[in-house]
Write a structure and sequence with these properties.
Helices cover 57% and strands 8% of the residues. The protein has 150 residues and is mainly α.
Length: 150
């Protein structure tokens, strides 16, 4: 799961960035990547803070990828269960194999009670990535405005 956020006015910003110097565009791209790293760091901290940390696999799978020549970054986990943590699930019967290790590490003799609970209630949402984006968004735009105002 990767979340790509395209701010309102992004097309206009891209058009305007073509009019600025290459040095200034490089600074904006650098700031964009730095903000992606800030989102990654904040998302990892959110997982740890909310006690959704088991072995750290989800947090360690959060990557920052550059696209469009560095003008856009995509931040998100490669762990397949990332969306289930972020958005929760409706009631469903999960694959027991996927939960066995977790159950053993948390003192359960069997994975079946956990599977049954998920089948009855689903999983609650536990957002970690979108709140990280919201934490960084305003700072990013202010820094870009500072660069463009030079």
């Amino acid at each position: 799961m990767k979340v790509t956020v395209t701010p309102v006015g992004f097309k206009e910003l891209r058009r305007d960035l073509k009019k600025i110097s290459k040095e200034m565009a490089a600074e904006v791209n650098k700031e964009t990547y730095a903000s992606g790293l800030d989102i990654q760091k904040a998302a990892r901290a959110n997982l740890k803070e909310r006690e959704t940390w088991d072995l750290g696999n989800l947090a360690n799978s959060i990557l920052v990828d550059r696209t469009e020549g560095g003008a856009i970054v995509e931040v998100g986990p490669t762990a397949p269960y990332g969306p289930y943590v972020e958005f929760g699930t409706k009631p469903h019967f999960p694959p027991p194999d996927a939960l066995e290790g977790w159950a053993k590490r948390h003192g359960f003799e069997s994975v079946w009670p956990i599977c049954r609970a998920i089948a009855e209630r689903g999983l609650p949402e536990n957002p970690y990535l979108f709140p990280a984006y919201l934490d960084v968004e305003g700072k990013f735009f202010n820094r870009v405005k500072g660069i463009l105002g030079k």
